[in-house]
Amino acid sequence: MTQSAPKPPIVENSRFPSGPLPPRAGAGLKTDHVDAILADDYRIGFLEVHAENYMGEGGPAHRALAAIRSEFPLSVHGVGLSIGSEEGIDTAHLERLARVVDRYQPSMVSEHLAWSSHDAGYFNDLLPVPYDRQTLDRVVAHISQIQDRLRRPILLENPSTYVAFEQSTMSETDFIREIAQKSGCGLLLDINNVFVSATNHGWKPMNYLRDFPLELVEEIHLAGHAEDVDDEGDLILIDAHDRPVADAVWKLYETVICQAGALPTLIEWDNDVPEWPVLRREARLADAILDRLGPASLLGSRHAAE
Amino acid sequence: MVGSGQHDFGAALLDPDLPLPEGITAPNGKKAARRFAIYRNNVTVSLIDALAGIFPALQRLVGETFFRDMARLYLVQEPPRSPVIFEYGGGFADFLSQFEPLAAYPYLPDVARLERAWLDAFHAADADPLHPGSLGAIPPERLADTTFTPHPATRIVQSRFAAISIFSASREERTLDGIRPANAEDGLITRPAYSVEVRQLPAGAADFFLALISGATLGEAADSTIARYPEFDLPSAISAMLEAGVFSACWFGEPNSEDPS
């Protein structure tokens, strides 16, 4: 190659379309749906993947995701960073996440307010943290470490929980708001998690949403939940992601969109995954609500203005 | 409980005989035992499901109920070390070989090794397999000096049992009729394009490929293999290796020279 005049640096992500997630419905990507999604006349607003599923070097999973990414906006959702861990962030795992983010240049990166790894190993579940000052400082430090490495802000997702901690001194909403303010992260509001946790802890979901900093929310998750009973025989909800979104959760979603305006909204369905048209039907329900209620919302102009 | 909360929480997740971790509560003075058990169940079921996804042939061979009970014991003994769950189960074959109730089925650990290698090949880095023309272009007098770069997906599993036939029958949902478990078999796993392929190798071919993978020249690998297996069919092994995509490049002259063919 011959030397010529200096050129401006080539933007590395130019192989994929860039831009924010659109304020439309998206779906959690399942391998079995890839061909149907690519062939569908209905163009889903975006797709979201669990980062850990793409931490291999190559093969069919990456080929499928590259095909999706070349046509759709992408959100990368981590499930294994263990942001609430007492042992600190696993830097090897953070490097793996950074590789996935570099490779696919997603519009959004998000993780959970939870922990999943400890000295015994990786538990493959999102485990709860106490809401106190010490935990808050630790979570803020971990999110800052992640954002520094990824060189971008991430979104933090509110958890679904089944137990609480004696040592908690703050409400979940105050805890999350302060983490966002101190770390500069955005928020991912999982409305099914709000409904599940509110039922399990005897809160009113509307009060939770009233106290939640909606102005920091950049993405919404919706999913289905299962029912069980606690020691007293009372209803307890399990964040199962194995069925359609419940009517009560759709109602809360309408309230949030009325208040906050149209936001990228993910339909999650991770267990007993149905055929693509079933997931598409859920996405279209979300699209209809976004179209109907988004434009008239109280905060609706904020995204257009930014 | 500063600093030790997650240790106790995690230990109680894996051992249902341990008491509820200190400081765990439920609203309005309710009990927290069944609530904590939801986490136990999530962890256990999700890891059993992960193992069932990684070892489907094994599950079919021992039956779902037996597999899930066995997986429950394994995951307590050896929980995943990494959040990359498709890497889980590296020690499952060794666990099976020590698992008394399966002592009458000594081929099962090798089936597990094959399944683990299958998934490693599935996620391995992409590379084009060696083009047959590259080997054909090497001057005949230099062939003996030629060395090969293994394809990232290539794995070889050698079994003292008929593990490859049993694995294939189980994955294809066939019966084991006609398979003699005590016949030793060697298996080759490759991913020439985007599909993982498993082949049973004729006698000597596994040693030959392993020698080439470890950097021996074609001449050295052929000589050492023929010394052990006088009936070894070198031309067939070379065509099989090209067809299966065992290697991604070949070199002649100095190994790792600047002149790839």
TrEMBL record, chain A:
It comes from the Bacteria. Residues 1-27 are annotated as: Disordered. InterPro entries: MbnB/TglH/ChrH, Xyl_isomerase-like_sf. It holds the Pfam family MbnB_TglH_ChrH. Belongs to the UPF0276 family. This is UPF0276 protein GTW23_01325. It comes from Hoeflea alexandrii. The lineage of its organism: Bacteria, Pseudomonadati, Pseudomonadota, Alphaproteobacteria, Hyphomicrobiales.
